[in-house]
């Protein structure tokens, strides 16, 4: 057993592995194509609306809304950054998209 600096003994504890049973319904498994995200936030949460905008049409349908805590939003950002890096290593750089967006509406990406 390891000995602490004060002469006390402590058992070494290993983090317990947790297996997550993820269930995916058929509707969710089909996915939803989106080409625009609107992101808003307040002190306690981020709200991400995923939209599909049809070309030449001034309408957009929200396909999904995801609400996350600030900590989980930051974790998601880090995971996307890591995943995009791996993608670009395999398939080459993703060219930045230059698309005019109505500057009067905040949060569009």
Secondary structure elements and their pairing?
Layout (H helix, E strand, L loop, with lengths): L25 H5 L5 E6 L4 E8 L6 E9 L1 H22 L18
Antiparallel strand pairs: 1-2, 2-3
Can you characterise this structure?
The protein is an alpha+beta fold and 109 residues long. It has a domain of 61 residues. Helix content is 25%, strand content 21%. The chain is built from two helices and three strands. Strands 1-2-3 form a three-stranded antiparallel β-sheet. Strand 2 and strand 3 form a beta hairpin. The radius of gyration is 22 Å and the shape is extended. The N and C termini lie far apart (54 Å).
Number of separate strands: 3
Structural class: alpha+beta
User: Count of helical segments?
Assistant: 2
- Taking the alpha carbons of the first and last residues, their distance comes to 54 Å
Return the average pLDDT rounded to an integer. Answer: 85
Unreliable segments of 5+ consecutive residues: none
How is the main sheet built? 3 strands, antiparallel
Characterize the overall form.
extended
Keywords:
single chain; alpha+beta; 3 strands; 25% helix; extended
Tell me briefly what this model is:
Helix content is 25%, strand content 21%.
């Amino acid at each position: 057993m390891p000995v602490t600096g004060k002469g006390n003994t402590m058992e070494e504890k290993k983090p317990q592995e947790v297996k997550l049973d993820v269930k995916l319904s058929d509707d969710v498994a089909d996915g939803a194509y989106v080409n625009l995200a609107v992101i808003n936030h307040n002190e306690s949460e981020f709200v991400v609306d995923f939209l599909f905008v049809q070309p030449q049409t001034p309408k957009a349908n929200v396909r999904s809304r995801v609400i996350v805590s600030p900590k989980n939003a930051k974790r998601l950002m880090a995971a996307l950054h890591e995943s995009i890096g791996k993608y670009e290593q395999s398939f080459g750089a993703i060219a930045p998209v230059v698309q005019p967006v109505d500057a009067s509406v905040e949060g569009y990406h």
